[in-house]
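name: query_chain
kind: protein
chains: 1
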Amino acid sequence: MILNDFNLEYLSNIMNLFKQKRKKLDDMLNITNSQTNAIVTEETDLMEQLISEKQSCINSVDMLNEKLKTLINDLKINLGINSLDQLIDCDTPEIQELRELVSDISCVLEKIEALEKQNSEMMRKLLDKKRQQIKDIAQGKKALTAYSKNYLKSSHYFNKNK
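structure:
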C-alpha cells in the first residue's frame, strides 16, 4: 500500500492528535499519583481539586478521541481499508511512529488503570474508617446524653433537699 502526500497529511494530523492525547494521559497519570498521596494523607480539599483537574483532562481526551475517530475514518476511506491494522504491512517511518504512539498510550492507560484500582481500594478503606469514626462519635454522644440526663436528675434531687 502506497501512502500519497494527501494520506501522509492525514497521518501526520492523526499522529499530532495522538501526541496531544499522550500528553493529556501523562497529565492524568501524574494527577492519579497525586491522588494516591492525597488519599494517604487524607487531604480531602486536595482530593477534590485533583478530581476536578482529572475531569478536565478526561474531557480533553474525549474531544481528542472524537477528532481522532473522524480523521481515522477519513483515512480508512481514502486508503480503502476497513481497519488501521491493515497498515501493518506498510513499513514507513510514519506508520512505525504511529504504532509506537499507540503502544505508548496503551502503556500509560494500563498504569492509570492500575493506580485507579489501588486508589479506589484505598478510598474504600478510608471511607470505612471515617464511617467507623462517625459511629464512634454518635455512640459517644448517646452515652454523654444519657450520662448528662442522669447527672441532671441526681443534681436536681440534691438541690431539693437543701
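note: Residues 5 and 156 are 97 Å apart (CA to CA).
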